[in-house]
Every structure is written in structure tokens, then in C-alpha cells.
Amino acid sequence: MKLPPWVCLTLGAVSYGVLERLQRTQIDTKSEPLFSFATSLYAPMALGFFVFFAALSAVHRSRRSKLVDQQTGLDSLRHTPWKDFEVLVAEAFRRQGYTADYSLDTGPDGGVDILLKKAGCTALVQCKRWKEWSVGVSVVREMFGILHDRKADEVIIVTTGHFTADAEAFAKGKPVKLIDGSLLWEMVRQVQGECKAASVPPSNVQADSRLTDTPECPKCGGEMLYKEAKQGATAGSFFWSCSRFPQCRGNRSIVPEEKPTVVA
Questions:
Q1: What pLDDT, on the 0 to 100 scale, is given for residue 117?
Q2: Residue 226, domain extent
Q3: Do the beta carbons of residue 171 and residue 182 sit within 8 Å?
Q4: Which pLDDT tens digit goes with each residue over 189-237?
Q5: Which of 106, 156, 113, 121 shows the shortest CA–CA distance to 135?
Q6: Which helix (H) or strand (E) holds 163?
């Protein structure tokens, strides 16, 4: 089900062709008519099997996409069923360019929920869909041990709640990334379809050299994206945000005299 639908359909077509050829070339239809009839069903059965899973794959991909795009805030994240929450987190990372592998089992996983790979690096993700609870240092220590046991490059712990001070202190300076509820919502919001469009200056805004020249991130020196604040006291204002957010939280504000002129 996690394979792209086209892969399933390709496997089905290949299986059908191979079995059909074997049936025509290896089975004597005259001396063994009953056996020939039975084996003639193998090819369409194989094709039907893969078509069925191609349909399931398409439904699953559509569903996991909606899990991200239909989120409206931290409260909706906290009310996402726990198994769907893992799929949602995996999809959010996948949209950032990671290869995300996760289990479709209905039972609790424990330990590693998602395996991420990108640019030759491996990250282990554990998801904690808690409404108000804080993730303690014991969880961070456990995942840090799993990091060494599996020889991964990084551990990421994602929660809709918070992390205790001890957990944050233990993770400091280690290849352990803590993503709390507010950071998770920012990550989801950034990869949602409508937010991608918001990263490009609106077409009704007059071009300005100060906006067309993309500044460098003040923290990491990377590329920045032009965005509009959607909520809070600064809602409606524009700013530059690091393209590596939430890994890097660098931003540059646009002072009033730099604000673009709206064409009537």
C-alpha cells in the first residue's frame, strides 16, 4: 500500500504477461484441459491482485495528503487519532524531501515510529500525540540509546505537548531534535499546499528590488522565503523566513518603508 500506484500496476502487468506466456507455452491444452483451464486463471488473478493494491495505494496517498492539508492548528493535531498522527508526521517530513518509512499496523509500535532518510543520513522518529502532557527525560534517554544501537545519525521526538526542562537539557548538544506542539504546527503549516503558495510574493504586489533580492538567513546563511504572517499581532505583515525552518528559525522582518506597494 505504501508503494506508488504506478509501481503496483507495473508489477501487475509484468505478472500477467509472464503467467500468460507460461500458460500458453508450457501447458498442453489438449491432453490436460482441466489443468489448463485452472492455470489460465492465474494471470488475471495476479493482475487483479496488483490492481486492488494500486487502488488501496491511491486511497492511502490521498488520505495521508488530506491529513496534512486539512489541519487547522495545534488543537486539530491533538485530536488526530494516534495512528493517523504518525502518518501525518511522516507525510510532513516527506514533503520536506525525506524518504519516510512507517508501519501501517493497527497496534502501538513503541520505539521508532518513522524512519527518515535524506542525503545519506538516517533519522529515527518517535511520535507522542499527547494533549497536555510533557515528554520526560526518560523518553529522550531511551531514544538516544536506540540511536546508538541502530547506528543512526539523528533522533527526532515529535509531540503535540511539551518537553520537560530535564528532557531539553539532556538533548542539548546531542543528535536529538525535540519538536513540541508549537514547532510541529509551524512545520505542518509550512508544508501545507496553501502555505507553499504564500511563500511567493502575491501577483498584485509591485516588484521591489529589496524583495526580489532574497536575503541570507542571519543564523545559517541559507536561502530565505518571503511569507505573510497568518495569525497573532503581526497578522497580515510580511517577513523573510529561513527555508530550513523548523531546523533553523532564522527570520528577517520587513520594516514599514520596505513594505511592497499594492497595485490598485
A1: 93
A2: 199-258
A3: no
A4: 999 864 444 444 443 333 333 333 567 777 766 666 767 666 656 666 6
A5: 156
A6: strand 162-163
